[in-house]
Automatic annotation (TrEMBL):
One of its GO terms (cellular component) is cytosol. GO terms for biological process: carbohydrate metabolic process; tricarboxylic acid cycle. This is Citrate synthase. Pfam families: Citrate_synt. Belongs to the citrate synthase family. Pathway: Carbohydrate metabolism; tricarboxylic acid cycle; isocitrate from oxaloacetate: step 1/2. It comes from Staphylococcus hominis. One of its GO terms (molecular function) is citrate synthase activity. It comes from the Bacteria.
Length: 372
């Protein structure tokens, strides 16, 4: 039997054309993440991940129209949130349930042709933004906001969440965040999605499985934990004392280090700059300064560099986005990657069924219950 690799670290489990991490550089279908973050719209990234190429102008406009068309939810879905939309229910739990629920209203949910699968990916991508924003508003006792046909995907999410038009800086920051989180090779949730559909289960099942994986604090939940940490540091003067206690107790400092990046996360610099820009505009300058102080201390003492989660937390906080919505936002972005991986798995499928190394007892004999 093959040698055990815990967490499948270093194991090649699939071939992909979606994204790559080579020498600490992230690419989407061969396009450097720097090039895309500086120039692209998130809608272009969706198309790229699904088709391995950027869209023409006509294709981009067609995709945007479909996204806007599919964003509005069935009225029963909006009503559905009233049954459990409270502060006691984590938004990722609600998202997991609601994605499963919307499958009931998809007339082609079980049709498995290439065309129907691609259209299903667009529908899920469109509706997941509406699910997150509607849940957030309903639990606050507010009416859900329907999408605005004049807005981009990034702008529409912020509009549906807050009920007011976002600023240009907010749209720029959010568009970048969506692009940077869209895919990341064979991460835990993408692998989970591929495992689920490798049995030829449907796309909704794959996305629900991926959401369950992303919910964990070692994956998508990290940026929410970063904001919790930053909230505990009351001022710049308290940074050293706070870190002293955390490090002395051998507690993990969230937002630092990454399994596949040894020279630093290439996505982090963009969110760091957006954090600087948006905290300045919104009056949260000290939050950015606290982040810089933590970054310096972790680098100088531990040799650790921030990952994408660290500065995304301050970006979202400065937009007045509830902290427990951070991980669902990650899901909104990563749905583009999940659906791409699901489509790719379908194209060249073999059911994913690894082996396990048995380490339990052997040669045992059954003993009748009255003799045990």
């Amino acid at each position: 039997m093959a040698e055990l690799q815990k967490g499948l670290e270093g194991v090649i489990a699939a071939e992909t054309k979606i994204s790559s991490i080579i020498d600490s550089q992230l690419t989407y279908s061969g396009y450097d993440i720097d090039d895309l973050a500086e120039n692209a719209q998130f809608e272009e990234i969706m198309f790229l991940l699904w088709n391995y190429r950027l869209p023409t102008q006509e294709e981009l406009e067609e995709l945007k129209e479909k996204l806007k068309q599919y964003m509005t939810l069935n009225p029963r879905v909006y009503k559905h949130f009233e049954e459990y939309a409270t502060d006691d229910v984590h938004p990722m739990t609600a998202l997991r349930t609601s994605v499963s629920y919307i499958a009931h209203f998809d007339p082609d949910a079980e049709e498995e042709t290439d065309e129907s699968r691609k259209n299903r990916a667009i529908r899920i991508q469109a509706k997941i933004a509406s699910l997150v924003t509607a849940f957030s508003r309903v639990r606050e006792g507010k009416e859900p906001v329907k999408p605005n046909s004049d807005l981009s995907y990034a702008a529409n999410f912020l509009y549906m969440l807050k009920g007011e038009l976002p600023s240009d800086t907010e749209v720029e920051a959010f568009n970048k965040a969506l692009i940077l989180h869209a895919d990341h090779e064979l991460n835990a949730s993408a692998f989970t999605a591929r495992c689920a559909v490798s049995s030829l289960s449907d796309m909704y099942s794959g996305i629900v499985a991926a959401i369950g994986s992303l919910k964990g604090p070692l994956h998508g939940g990290a940026n929410e934990q970063v904001m919790k940490m930053l909230s505990e540091v009351k001022s710049l003067d308290e940074v050293d004392n706070y870190l002293d206690k955390k490090l002395a107790n051998k507690e993990k400092i969230m937002g630092f280090g990454h399994r596949v990046y040894k020279e630093g996360d290439p996505r982090a610099k963009y969110l760091k700059e957006m954090s600087r820009k948006i905290t300045s505009e919104t009056g949260h300058n000290e939050l950015y300064e606290i982040s810089l102080a933590i970054e310096k201390r972790m680098h100088d003492e531990k040799g650790l560099i921030p990952n994408v989660d660290f500065f995304s937390a301050t970006v979202y906080h400065s937009m007045e986005i509830p902290h427990d919505i951070f991980t669902p936002i990650f899901a909104v972005s990563r749905t583009a990657g999940w659906t791409a991986h699901i489509l790719e798995q379908y194209r060249d499928n073999r059911i994913i069924r690894p082996r396990a190394k048995y380490v339990g007892e052997t040669n045992r004999k059954y003993v009748a219950v009255e003799e045990r």
